[in-house]
User: Which sequence fits this backbone?
């Protein structure tokens, strides 16, 4: 599956606006194992919703974000953030499909 170029261009434009407004950002990550219980709770909520056939993009994104929050290894955090971005893009794709219907 290919992400529509329109969405990627919108993301690039938003990043450019952020850089223009704030400059390069180098905040500390603020993540780590202290968020593990939050990640487990989000994962359980998502699994419960899925078991009931009621899983939402909010549930999935919440799970992915909380998994990222719980990570303190830079490479693993990066991988989790890519998953966050992928879910966000999938959600935008779904909204665009609905708008065309």
Assistant:
């Amino acid at each position: 599956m290919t992400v529509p170029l329109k969405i990627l261009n919108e993301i690039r434009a938003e990043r450019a606006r952020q850089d223009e407004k704030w400059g390069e950002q180098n905040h500390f990550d603020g993540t780590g194992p202290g968020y593990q219980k939050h990640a487990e709770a989000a994962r359980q909520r998502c699994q419960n919703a899925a078991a009931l056939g009621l899983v939402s993009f909010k549930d999935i994104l919440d799970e992915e974000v909380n998994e990222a929050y719980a990570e303190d290894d830079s490479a693993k955090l990066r991988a989790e953030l890519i998953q966050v971005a992928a879910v966000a893009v999938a959600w935008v794709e779904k909204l665009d499909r609905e708008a065309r219907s």
Summary: DSSP finds four helices and no strands in the chain.
